[in-house]
């Protein structure tokens, strides 16, 4: 029996990545524990047009077709199940991850449930996947990412590729989510893999 995945959405641009990953996991019958920072809620409103005045209702509206597999925790609920190492999970994905949250995880801070859940993954030796979304990057960002990489964290920057000939924003989102799913060990067909397609040039795609 598969164990649940923990999904964290922060205030970095790219909320669609976290929503798409969560939706895909639920569609495959997998259980997730979802948490969203306050800044993450702001980005969901600004980028995806979510009504965030009633957060639990917004979650229900987006993921309501899989209520038995979705566990939503408020970011302040430091006593939630994922805050304890005794709660067994498959791992955690922070997608997208702001540089502020990345810094907190790298320094071992546990000021909210997302940071504490990530700290649990590190101390228990479970998979922790982070999708940083920022540009340009300065030395502190890079040093924090290097520190986490040395701890075994998988870093998948939100850098869409073009060799698969993306036609829509959704195609570009699916590429990043697909790369995350690869690292999670979950099968998918969200993008065409290199060597399995007729490649288009960037000029052809633009036309």
From TrEMBL:
<feature type="binding site">
    <location>
        <begin position="11"/>
        <end position="13"/>
    </location>
    <ligand>
        <name>FMN</name>
    </ligand>
</feature>
<keyword id="KW-0288">FMN</keyword>
<keyword id="KW-0285">Flavoprotein</keyword>
<keyword id="KW-0637">Prenyltransferase</keyword>
<dbReference type="InterPro" id="IPR004507">
    <property type="entry name" value="UbiX-like"/>
</dbReference>
<protein>
    <recommendedName>
        <fullName>Flavin prenyltransferase UbiX</fullName>
        <ecNumber>2.5.1.129</ecNumber>
    </recommendedName>
</protein>
<feature type="binding site">
    <location>
        <position position="179"/>
    </location>
    <ligand>
        <name>dimethylallyl phosphate</name>
    </ligand>
</feature>
<feature type="domain" description="Flavoprotein">
    <location>
        <begin position="5"/>
        <end position="183"/>
    </location>
</feature>
<comment type="similarity">
    <text>Belongs to the UbiX/PAD1 family.</text>
</comment>
<comment type="function">
    <text>Flavin prenyltransferase that catalyzes the synthesis of the prenylated FMN cofactor (prenyl-FMN) for 4-hydroxy-3-polyprenylbenzoic acid decarboxylase UbiD. The prenyltransferase is metal-independent and links a dimethylallyl moiety from dimethylallyl monophosphate (DMAP) to the flavin N5 and C6 atoms of FMN.</text>
</comment>
<feature type="binding site">
    <location>
        <position position="133"/>
    </location>
    <ligand>
        <name>FMN</name>
    </ligand>
</feature>
<feature type="binding site">
    <location>
        <begin position="98"/>
        <end position="101"/>
    </location>
    <ligand>
        <name>FMN</name>
    </ligand>
</feature>
<keyword id="KW-0808">Transferase</keyword>
<dbReference type="Pfam" id="PF02441">
    <property type="entry name" value="Flavoprotein"/>
</dbReference>
<feature type="binding site">
    <location>
        <position position="37"/>
    </location>
    <ligand>
        <name>FMN</name>
    </ligand>
</feature>
<feature type="binding site">
    <location>
        <position position="163"/>
    </location>
    <ligand>
        <name>dimethylallyl phosphate</name>
    </ligand>
</feature>
<dbReference type="InterPro" id="IPR036551">
    <property type="entry name" value="Flavin_trans-like"/>
</dbReference>
<dbReference type="InterPro" id="IPR003382">
    <property type="entry name" value="Flavoprotein"/>
</dbReference>
């Amino acid at each position: 029996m598969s164990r649940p995945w923990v999904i964290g959405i922060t205030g970095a641009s790219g909320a669609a990545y976290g929503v798409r990953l969560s939706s895909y996991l639920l569609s495959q019958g997998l259980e997730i524990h979802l948490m969203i920072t306050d800044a993450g809620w702001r980005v969901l409103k600004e980028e995806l047009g979510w009504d965030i005045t009633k957060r639990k209702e917004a979650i229900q509206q987006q993921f309501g077709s899989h209520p038995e597999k979705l566990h939503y925790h408020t970011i302040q609920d430091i006593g939630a199940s994922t805050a304890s190492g005794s709660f067994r999970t498959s791992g955690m994905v922070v997608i997208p991850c702001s540089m502020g949250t990345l810094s907190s995880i790298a320094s071992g801070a546990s000021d909210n449930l997302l940071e504490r859940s990530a700290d649990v993954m590190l101390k228990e030796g479970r998979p922790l996947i982070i999708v940083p979304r920022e540009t340009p990057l300065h030395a502190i960002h890079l040093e924090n990412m290097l520190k986490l990489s040395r701890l075994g964290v998988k870093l998948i920057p939100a850098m869409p590729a073009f060799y698969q000939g993306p036609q829509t924003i959704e195609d570009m989102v699916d590429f990043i989510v697909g790369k995350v799913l690869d690292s999670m060990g979950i099968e998918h067909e969200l993008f065409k893999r290199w060597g399995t397609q007729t490649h288009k040039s960037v000029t052809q795609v633009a036309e």
